[in-house]
Specification:
With about 375 residues, this protein is α/β, with parallel strands linked by helices. It has 15 helices and 14 strands. It has an eight-stranded mixed beta sheet, with helices on both faces. The protein has a six-stranded parallel beta sheet with strand order 11-10-9-12-13-14, sandwiched between helices. Strand 5 (about 105-110), helix 4 (about 115-120) and strand 6 (about 125-130) form a beta-alpha-beta unit. The model has no long low-confidence stretch (mean pLDDT about 95).
Length: about 375
């Protein structure tokens, strides 16, 4: 029986598997590495082709790694691409897909051109949403590039046989854009690194906030919460936040700048809780990583990862832009080491199972089989 061919389009960080490729800047999908590692187990079932673009290479690279085929093109200006409707990128992908002749094209995300390129394939195609830009633009002031990019989402969603979203929150936001496609929930696993961390809370209470410095993450609400006198004994570490971004911070709030996933894991090992006050977030990786370690989390109602939080048991789900509610939740979690350990352990096995690579792989096989068994 011949293997089915799958062409995956997405912002894969190819430098992680080929040291000759310069490390990229900006957005890339960290969970695609977990998918790549998991798919190596299915080489007898599927012939996997990854199509991605990387800045820093001057000519197309093709190679095979873990029995998966990579087709990597030089990336140019995304802004120019946006104004030209990504004609160059879509042409290159379309031509490569024609050579591959896949049974399914699986595109990841609408943040750049991969979702648009996948809709050009008029056979069996799947779109896996990452963020939902339309919802983000509605809830926060966004950069012009992302505002313009959000205009593509409705027509993109309408062009797919199947669209997946990683949380009920993201699924609802997609349905607000279009009810035309078939939708399925499909979440991405946490990196294997975080399944092997054993918690050792620091001797004095500390909390972690990790993410990009955008209005979507609402770092300001966390800073306001930890600036209150009753939280002065609790250290808040801001990972991903530049040291000079917020001047005159109280001494218990410490920006760390941009740090590696390994450093993130070290902080999650010792932190008493994770704070993630986003105003729009499909299912942030940092919350999933915290939960598989057993760290209690404080998230908002507009955070898709609230599906991994049992309110008041393994963390707290609070309204957006609510520093007082954040402070109240932090005080409850950091009441004692016993409290933070017990809350972190609550519902832990369900989270670890749901966010494992094997679960992601099983669910992906179901998706592929369901679309392979339907007419285009």
């Amino acid at each position: 029986m011949s293997r089915k061919k799958i062409a995956i389009l997405g912002s894969f960080p190819a430098w992680l598997i080929d040291e000759t490729i310069p490390k990229g800047k900006g957005h890339f999908a960290v969970w695609l590495v977990s998918l790549y590692q998991a798919l190596s187990e299915l080489s007898n079932t599927y012939e996997i082709h990854w199509i991605t673009f990387c800045r820093g290479i001057k000519k197309t690279k093709r190679f095979t790694s873990q029995q998966q085929h990579f087709h990597i093109f030089p990336e140019t200006s995304l802004t120019l691409g946006q104004y030209t409707h990504y004609i160059r990128e879509r042409f290159l992908i379309k031509r490569e897909i024609k050579k591959i002749a896949p049974d399914i094209v699986h595109a990841w995300g609408t943040e750049t051109f991969y979702g648009l390129a996948g809709k050009d394939y008029k056979n069996k195609n799947i779109l896996s949403m990452q963020g939902v830009l339309t919802a983000c633009v509605q809830r926060a002031i966004m950069p012009k590039f992302q505002i313009r990019q959000s205009k593509y989402e409705k027509s993109t969603l309408n062009s797919y046989c199947l669209v997946t979203a990683e949380s009920p929150w993201a699924l609802d936001r997609c349905k607000e854009i279009s009810n035309k496609p078939q939708y399925e929930l499909f979440d991405y696993s946490a990196n294997d690194l975080f399944f092997h961390i054993e918690r050792e809370p620091s001797s004095t209470p500390s909390c972690l906030l990790a993410g990009t410095d955008t209005l979507l993450k609402d770092v300001a609400s966390a800073i306001q919460a930890f600036s209150q006198p009753e939280l002065s004994h609790i250290t808040l570490y801001l990972a991903g936040i530049p040291h000079n971004r917020y001047p005159n911070l109280p001494s218990n709030i410490i920006p760390l700048g941009r740090i590696s996933r390994e450093k993130i894991a070290e902080y999650l090992k010792t932190t008493w809780c994770l704070v993630h006050p986003s105003v729009a977030d499909s299912c942030p990786n940092i919350v999933k990583e915290a939960r598989v370690i057993g760290v209690p989390c404080i998230v908002t109602h507009e955070c898709g990862a609230k599906q991994y939080i049992c309110n008041q048991k393994s963390g707290f789900v609070v309204p957006i832009k609510s520093p007082d509610k954040i402070a109240e939740a932090v005080l409850k979690i950091t009441n004692s080491q016993k409290t933070t350990l017990n809350m972190g352990a609550y519902d832990l096995e369900r989270c670890r199972t749901a966010l494992s690579a094997s679960t992601m792989l099983d669910n992906l096989i179901k998706l592929y089989n369901s679309i392979l068994n339907t007419t285009p």
